[in-house]
Amino acid sequence: MKIEWAPIGVPMERRRQTFAMAFLILSFMILSFGSYFFVAAVLFYGSVLWRTIMVIYLVYVYANHRRTHSIMDGNGWKINRNNWLFRHYRDYFPVQLVKTAELPPNKNYILASFPHGILGTGISINMGLDISKWLKLFPQVRPKVATLDQNFLTPIVRGLLRSWGLVSVSKEALVYLLTKSNDPKHNDNRDGFTSNAVAILVGGAQEALDSHPGKYILTLKNRKGFVKMAIRTGSSIVPTFSFGEVDILDQVANPPNSPVRRFQDFVKRITGISPLIPVGRGIFNYSFGFLPNRRRIVQVVGAPIDVVQNDQPDAAYVDKIHKQVIDDLEKMFAKYKDQYIPNSKQDKLIIH
């Protein structure tokens, strides 16, 4: 394989963007695994004092998660959701945010977000790491990104996730956020915000397995839990689509029923996590590595679908709203694909 090296004369701004990307990817990879090794090292080899401190910390993490679902109210630490590092991370691709309709701050929202891709980059940047553009387009609406519940039991990492506005996708956490008062005078809204918008990557780990450049394959036909949650809490559903999400990383070929896919499905059934093997670029080359490729991602936020609140959602009504979500996504893809996807004539939307 011929290696394509990055030219020496790369502009300094692009070098800073690559540094930001590499730093964040490496840091998260190291922290995700390193935190467990650190805890184990302290428990096995630390002094009595350090072992005691670690046990107290682990008990606190578990108890706090059970009591509060690890939710940080408000917008978290704003300095950690709008800074130099994350702005360069955004500009690396770049990631854009497009508004097509108003989101009035007098109600709460579930953003049904597609596609998942390998990393869920578009939604994570716009509604998690760098929320400056979101706050300009949707004032008074707090952006939140839902992720796997077990992530908030990971030592050290949970603190970062909370500070970035990430929340558990558990039923209890979603109900807590989506039933928050929209009254400006309520104590929960002293920060000037009166609405919560929780983004859910509905396709999840299963959809990530189908992520390959140019292939927009959504896992949605049998995913109705988010619709039921919206109806139970009276939250509007906002379909969102991140064009280009699947193009920033490829993965090792894993067609259905292949040995690789069977192994991935097995691990996913046990852990809820898909063991993906991403294929990207390197820091100094464009041919191989773990960094995403520079491909534009455009997250289009659709119009809200209002629902009638009901503690016991009727199956027929759930199906009706679910179909409307699918219809809106198909219309969104058809309307914007030529604008935001290069060579879009070959790209089709497939919904499983």
TrEMBL record:
Pfam families: DAGAT. GO terms for cellular component: endoplasmic reticulum membrane. Its EC number is 2.3.1.-. Its main location: endoplasmic reticulum. It comes from the Eukaryota. The chain crosses the membrane at residues 20-38, 44-63. It is found in: Endoplasmic reticulum membrane. It is a multi-pass membrane protein. CDD domains: LPLAT_MGAT-like (cd07987). Keywords: Acyltransferase, Endoplasmic reticulum, Lipid biosynthesis, Lipid metabolism, Membrane, Transferase, Transmembrane, Transmembrane helix. It is an enzyme of class 2 (transferase). GO terms for molecular function: diacylglycerol O-acyltransferase activity. One of its GO terms (biological process) is triglyceride biosynthetic process. Belongs to the diacylglycerol acyltransferase family. This is Acyltransferase. The lineage of its organism: Eukaryota, Metazoa, Ecdysozoa, Arthropoda, Hexapoda. The gene is Dyak\GE19144.
